[in-house]
Design brief:
A: 359 residues, alpha/beta, eight-stranded mixed sheet, 17 helices, 18% strand, B: mainly alpha, 0% strand, globular, transmembrane helix (chain B), MetI-like (chain B)
Chain lengths: 359, 272
């Protein structure tokens, strides 16, 4: 009886604590902002500074890719004040009426953002009504100068078999494992728009990628960094922000945005329709646009900042004038953002991509 | 005894929330379209050439890795059993120890071992042996599956073997059976339940994996798990993803039913 009783009491206590624990998650009175951002995409120090200066507590969650974030906001299963999706996703969310307009009276620091990027952002957010650029970058080729002697300036370096064989890296290419990026590269190389919805053009792009398949060692996203730094592969497709990091680790690596053009992506802060506290969200966005804060974030995550005042403050001249972090306008003119193409076309893209891989 | 039944209540609630309800949701999504109407189209997509190839490749690779696991695990379990260690929690510890580390980390470690400039090839080069091109091939995936799931084969077989009474084996010997006869007619049939649960526990996760093929296959080898993952993560199509998962579940159920049938027959034999 004694032992049995004890067990029952323990079990009861366990259930009780669980129930109390859950009930304890009720909202308290301290002002709180709910932030939803990419992983490793902010200097943690910045969050603490925000809390200290405004007295608003920050509840910070992160996501791995846009597609993980989207259903959370769409179903409203968790409410966030401020979120940081990419261009095409912002466009999709605007279209589906998931966002609310930002009141720029509360965001005076917007003046620090370079108008060039605000203009680029208009491609997906006309009038800059819903989003404020946070980070941006390009997609390009990273190659190892000690392993490939030829100069590389074209996507052809990833598609031209004779060129690859002549330089001895056929079968060693690291291609990007992302539907839009991979097909986008092929489309641009063929001279089409990277937002093409034309089935014939997509078919051509698919055939090009299918041809490329035997030349590819692996389809990767994050792993490209380690493989390139370690010299496992001589060439690969990479995001510009990662390129700066890999160059630091291995000076033989060179990053180019091919002459045919490429993708420029912009991640921006947006406020969901169901945000519990819009006022805090605008405070947060304004804080992120402050030059010292933007600089701190840039130094921590190494992705390019659209904040011209922050760029002026960069002490390291090499970085300040880095053509990777801040390519000149002639390169940027050749780069386009991704647009949201609608469900049907996205499915078509995925099917084409799967056909490429099921060789 | 009756009064304690309610103690299982938290577990039943747990199961309902995290197993039964999600399963029902998968079924619901699997047989509906985005507008909510009933359809079998999601299930029929398995016949699509790309998906069919992926499923077939998954089945092939998981059968191969299950067989390799069995061939490696059975003798090992026999040897461990013959050691008659007093403290057999030690054995369990040895095989569970690597599992204390995260599955993902261990798979990434294998990537570093198998790479062309990786640990294995560096050693081979040092010994002036020909290097191997393993990474980003189906063999690398089989490697990863065998490594990750081997303990799930060893432990059930070992658990069954230690339960076989020495008296049974001695009786067989007394009646004139030699070592091989004892093994074939006594030990093997009696250990059949362990083999069956081992096979299930290796085959099922191998069939559904998408992490191993991404990391060790360089995403060049597309398995059915990857196809399903893409439906959910890349184009946010839960309906097709769930439909394909349902088909996969059917395959698993069929393979388990076949095994269960053999299991019963084997038990029948062991009684004889």
């Amino acid at each position: 009886m004694g032992v049995k009783m004890k067990r029952i009491v323990i079990a009861l206590l366990l259930v009780l604590t669980a129930v109390v624990g859950l009930a304890g998650c009720k909202k308290s009175n301290t002002p709180t902002i709910y932030v939803y951002n990419w992983g490793e995409y902010i200097d943690p120090e910045v969050i603490k500074m925000f809390e200290k200066e405004t007295g608003i507590k920050v509840k910070y969650d992160d996501f791995v890719q846009n597609e993980d974030m989207y259903p959370v906001i769409q179903t409203g299963s968790a409410k966030y004040d401020v979120v940081c999706p990419s261009d095409y996703m912002i466009q999709k969310m605007i279209k589906e009426d998931l966002l609310q307009e930002i009141n720029y009276d509360n965001v005076p620091n917007i003046s620090n953002i370079d108008p060039t990027y605000l203009k680029s952002a208009e491609e997906f957010d006309p009038g800059n009504k819903y989003s404020v650029p946070y980070c941006w970058g390009t997609v390009g080729i990273l190659y190892n100068k000690s392993m490939i002697k030829a100069d590389i300036d074209s996507w052809g370096a990833l598609f031209d078999k004779d060129f690859m064989k002549a330089n001895g890296y056929d079968g060693k290419v690291l291609m990007i494992d992302s539907v839009r990026d991979a097909l986008g590269i092929a489309l641009v190389y063929l001279g089409y728009s990277l937002n093409s919805t034309n089935p014939a053009e997509l078919e051509e792009a698919k055939n090009l990628l299918k041809d490329q398949f035997p030349m590819v060692d692996a389809y990767v996203v994050d792993q490209v960094r380690d493989k390139m730094i370690g010299g496992e592969n001589p060439i690969g497709v990479i995001y510009s922000g990662e390129a700066i990091y890999t160059q630091r680790e291995n000076p033989d690596l060179e990053y180019v945005v091919p002459k045919e053009g490429s993708n420029i992506w912009i991640d921006g802060w947006v406020i969901p329709k169901n945000a519990p506290n819009k006022e805090y969200a605008e405070k947060w966005i304004d804080f992120m646009c402050r030059p010292d804060i933007a600089l701190k974030n840039f130094e921590y995550i190494t992705y390019s900042t659209p904040n011209s005042a922050a760029r002026e403050m960069i002490e390291d001249v090499d970085i300040k004038n880095s053509t990777i972090a801040f390519p000149d306008s002639s390169i940027l003119e050749r780069c386009k953002t991704f647009h949201y193409l609608g469900e049907e076309v996205e499915t078509l893209y995925l099917n084409k991509w799967n056909e490429v891989k099921s060789n | 005894m009756k009064s304690r039944k309610w103690l299982s209540f938290p577990y039943i609630i747990w199961m309902a929330i995290f197993i039964i309800i999600p399963l029902l949701m998968v079924i619901y999504y699997g047989i509906t379209t985005k507008s909510g109407t009933f359809t079998f189209d999601n299930l029929a997509l398995i016949a699509d050439p790309i998906n069919r190839t992926a499923l077939w490749l998954s089945i092939k690779l998981s059968v191969v890795s299950t067989l390799i696991c069995l061939v490696l695990a059975y003798p090992l379990a026999l040897i461990l059993n013959n050691m008659k260690l007093k403290n057999n929690s030690f054995i369990v510890l040895i095989f569970i120890l690597p599992m204390w580390m995260n599955f993902l980390l261990r798979t990434i470690a294998w990537q570093n071992i198998l790479e062309n400039t990786g640990v294995l090839n560096t050693i081979l080069k040092f010994l002036h042996l020909p290097t191997l091109e393993l990474i980003n091939t189906p063999s690398a995936i089989v490697f990863g599956m065998v490594y990750n799931f081997l303990p799930f084969m060893i432990l059930p077989i070992y658990n069954v073997l230690i339960k076989i009474s020495d008296d049974t084996i001695n009786a067989a010997r007394d009646l004139g059976a030699n070592y091989f006869q004892t093994f074939l007619k006594i030990i093997l049939p009696l250990s059949f339940p362990g083999i069956i649960s081992g096979i299930t526990m290796v085959f099922v996760p191998s069939l559904t994996t998408f992490v191993i093929s991404t990391i060790l296959g360089g995403s060049k080898v597309v398995l059915i798990g990857n196809v399903i993952e893409q439906q959910f993560k890349m184009i946010n199509n839960w309906h097709t993803g769930s439909g394909l998962s349902l088909v996969l579940m059917v395959f698993i159920l069929i393979s388990m039913a076949i095994l269960a049938k053999y299991d019963k027959e084997a038990e029948g034999k062991s009684v004889w």
